[in-house]
Design a protein that fits this description.
CATH topology: Rossmann fold
Largest sheet: 5 strands, parallel
Oligomer: single chain
Strand content: 5-15%
Distance between the termini: 23 Å
Number of strands: 5
CATH class: Alpha Beta
Structural class: alpha/beta
């Protein structure tokens, strides 16, 4: 069965929605989403055998919560992310990932973690295109929102 690797913005949606579904549309990091997008995300995640993450994605998601809000949501972040399988690649591998210069370290860590059974879920068009360019599968969450939900 395929694994799902969730990009940072989608992970933040998952964390905020799990913490308080009704806050999705009002929290500063998820205001472009609606509570139904959280439901769509949960349904999409249910299609996969396991969820993957990388340390840079976790770091970026945690940092995006902001110091003023992090204490409120920290327990939820841990509860949501602890079951994920962490894919660790050496920094040299991440730096060499095709697309690093354009996408940055967190997205390059996703590219470095790819294998034939990994699908990336993102709302980032550049990352989405790079994953497909490399011959792997990606799902653009905005396409799901528009056509699948």
């Amino acid at each position: 069965m395929q694994s799902l690797l969730v990009d940072t913005n989608i992970l933040v949606l998952l964390i905020i929605g799990t913490w308080d579904r009704d806050s999705v549309g009002t929290h500063r990091r998820t205001e472009t989403f609606a509570p139904r997008d959280y439901d769509l995300l949960r349904a999409e995640m249910g299609r996969f055998g396991r969820v993957l993450t990388t340390q840079p994605v976790l770091t970026e998601a945690s940092n995006l919560m902001g110091n003023d809000f992090h204490e409120d949501v920290a327990d939820t972040l841990v509860r949501v992310c602890l079951p994920f399988v962490e894919v660790v690649r050496p920094k040299e591998t991440v730096f060499q990932a095709k697309g690093f210069a354009r996408l940055g370290f967190a997205d390059a860590s996703i590219l470095a973690a790819l294998d034939a059974d990994t699908v990336v879920l993102t709302d980032d068009v550049s990352l989405y295109a790079q994953v497909w360019y490399l011959g792997n599968e990606a799902i653009n969450f905005n396409h799901l929102r528009q056509y699948g939900g």
